[in-house]
Amino acid sequence: AFQTTGIIELAEQLETAIQQWLIGIMISGTVKVSIYRNYVLESEEAGEDLSALLALAGVESSCLLNSLPVRIARAAGAGPARARAIDWCLSTLEARGPFFPKALALDTLGTLGTADLVPEIAAHLADDNAYIYGAAERALTRIGEPVIDHVRMVMGRGGVQPEVLQSLLRVACEMSHQSSLRLVTDHFDEIFETIGPEPASEAVGMLGH
Questions:
Q1: Inter-residue contact 128 to 153 (CB < 8 Å)
Q2: Share of the chain above pLDDT 90, in %
Q3: What angle do CA 188, 126, 164 make, to 5 degrees?
Q4: Per-residue confidence (pLDDT) for residue 107, from 0 to 100
Q5: Alpha-carbon gap, residue 35 to 20, rounded angstroms
Q6: Cα–Cα distance, 98 to 91 (Å, whole number)
Q7: What's the whole-number mean pLDDT along residues 38-67?
Q8: How confident is the model at residue 79 (pLDDT cuts 50, 70, 90)?
Q9: Sign of the torsion formed by the C-alpha atoms of 52, 53, 56 and 58
Q10: Residue 196 phi, psi dihedral angles, 5° rounding
Q11: CA trace torsion 194, 199, 205, 206 (10° rounding)
């Protein structure tokens, strides 16, 4: 663009301040183009390479949130590769950093069916970021019935945030297992007192749907 005659001639007709603004815009555009990465293309090229997929998972971009967890889980399989994928997820959740990789890590743990990590996943229900607590809910839903035992443990311990308990109950009731119903009947009064009648009714209303 800097070498295009038409743009140069136009710039020369502008006031100095406008010229500087135009140059700034063109420089910004040049920098943006020079560092641009096509993550979708990189994802396709990664195939089933776990290292490449995990590298992409650490990128601050929402475009891979829906596809990468399943692909990482498939590439990880069982054994050392699965352990490596889980370690990456836990390290990402513990680190201070961008939130898209954290959401992706939670979704991946759910896709991997890490029932033993339900407490670690559930801890992120208290996050203020919708991407993160939404990913935690999805992960718990994928893991399934072990979440109900965690809800019982949390309620028995006490002190759980109402918003967190509401999310846990919603996940547990959506499963519509017999254990979901028993959870509600065993803790009916406590549930309604802790999260309030309206949220409790909403969660309980998911039973059987």
A1: no
A2: 44
A3: 5
A4: 96
A5: 23
A6: 13
A7: 83
A8: confident
A9: negative
A10: 95, 155
A11: -100
Chain segment 141-199, per-residue pLDDT in tens = 999 999 999 999 998 888 889 899 999 999 998 888 888 889 988 888 888 888 888 98
Q: Tell me the C-alpha distance between 115 and 123, whole Å.
A: 14
* pLDDT-derived band at 206, boundaries 50, 70, 90: confident
Contacts of 20 (CB under 8 A, 6+ apart): none
Structure tokens belonging to residue 60: 């601050």
Contacts from 74-83 at CB under 8 Å and sequence distance 24+?
A: 74/48, 75/48, 75/49, 75/50, 76/50, 76/112, 81/50, 82/112
pLDDT recorded at residue 30: 61
Specify the pTM: 0.76
Q: Which of 204, 206, 205, 208 is nearest to 187 (CA)?
A: 204
Number of H helices, E strands in the chain: 14, 0
CB atoms within 10 A of CB 162: 13
Q: Look up residue 194 and give its amino acid.
A: T
How many angstroms separate the CA atoms of 142 and 84, rounded?
20
